[in-house]
C-alpha cells in the first residue's frame, strides 16, 4: 500500500462519474453527506474497491436498476454504502461471494465474463487498511458497506479535542 492523505468524498465522486460514463442506463444517486472525509489510505486501492462494488451493482442486476452511494463518518470510522435495487443475494451465498472465484449463478456469471475475484480482492484491500466489507441483502435491496478507520490505529494522539 502507498498511503496518502485522501478525501474519501472526492474519491467516491470520481468513482460515481466513471460509473455514470460506463453505465448511462443505470441511475446513480450520490446521497448528500459530509463535504469531505479525510483518510490516510492508498487512494488507488480504495478507488479499486469502489469500482468493484459499483461494477457489481451494474453487472449483476437487470438493466435500468438504480444504484445509490452514501458516504458517512462517525465513531472513528468512515463508511461507504453501495446500494442497488437488484434481485439480491440468497442467504446461503452471502458470505461466500467474498470467496475467490465464487459466483452465485455460474452459468449466467460466465456470460458476463466475471471471474469471481472482485469481492475477494476488495475485502483483502479493505482489510489491509484495517477496515471491513460487509453485505446485507434482500430481494430489491443489496447493500455493500465498506468501513475504514478514520485514522491509523498507530497514529499519535496528543492532548486536545478529538476531531471526528
Ligand atoms: P469479477 O468481479 O472478478 O469480474 P464477479 O463480479 O463475478 O467477477 P465478485 O465481484 O467477486 O465476482 O462477485 C461474486 C459474485 O457475487 C458475483 O458473481 C455475483 O453472483 C454476486 N454478486 C456480487 N455483487 C452482487 C450484487 N450487487 N447483486 C447481486 N449479486 C452480486
Ligand atoms: Mg465483480
Automatic annotation (TrEMBL):
Domain of life according to the entry: Bacteria
Keywords, in A-Z order: Kinase, Membrane, Phosphoprotein, Transferase, Transmembrane, Transmembrane helix, Two-component regulatory system
A cellular-component GO term for this protein: plasma membrane
Cell compartments where the protein resides: Cell membrane
Organism: Streptomyces aquilus
GO MF annotation terms: calcium ion binding; phosphorelay sensor kinase activity
Residues annotated as domain Histidine kinase: 1-152
Name the UniProt record assigns to this protein: histidine kinase
Phosphoprotein is among the record's keywords: yes
Chief localization: membrane
The keyword Transmembrane is annotated on this UniProt entry: yes
Amino acid at each position: 500500500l502507498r498511503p496518502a492523505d485522501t478525501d474519501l468524498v472526492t474519491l467516491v465522486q470520481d468513482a460515481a462519474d466513471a460509473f455514470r460514463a460506463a453505465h448511462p442506463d443505470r441511475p446513480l444517486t450520490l446521497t448528500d453527506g459530509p463535504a469531505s472525509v479525510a483518510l490516510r489510505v492508498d487512494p488507488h486501492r480504495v478507488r479499486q474497491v469502489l469500482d468493484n462494488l459499483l461494477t457489481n451493482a451494474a453487472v449483476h442486476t437487470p438493466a435500468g436498476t438504480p444504484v445509490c452511494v452514501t458516504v458517512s463518518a462517525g465513531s472513528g470510522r468512515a463508511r461507504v454504502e453501495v446500494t442497488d435495487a437488484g434481485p439480491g443475494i440468497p442467504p446461503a451465498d452471502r458470505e461466500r461471494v467474498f470467496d475467490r472465484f465464487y459466483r452465485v449463478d455460474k452459468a449466467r456469471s460466465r456470460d458476463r465474463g466475471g471471474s469471481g475475484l472482485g469481492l475477494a480482492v476488495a475485502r483483502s484491500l479493505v482489510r489491509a487498511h484495517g477496515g471491513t466489507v460487509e453485505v446485507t441483502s434482500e430481494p430489491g435491496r443489496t447493500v455493500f458497506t465498506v468501513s475504514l478507520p478514520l485514522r491509523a490505529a498507530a497514529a499519535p494522539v496528543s492532548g486536545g479535542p478529538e476531531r471526528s
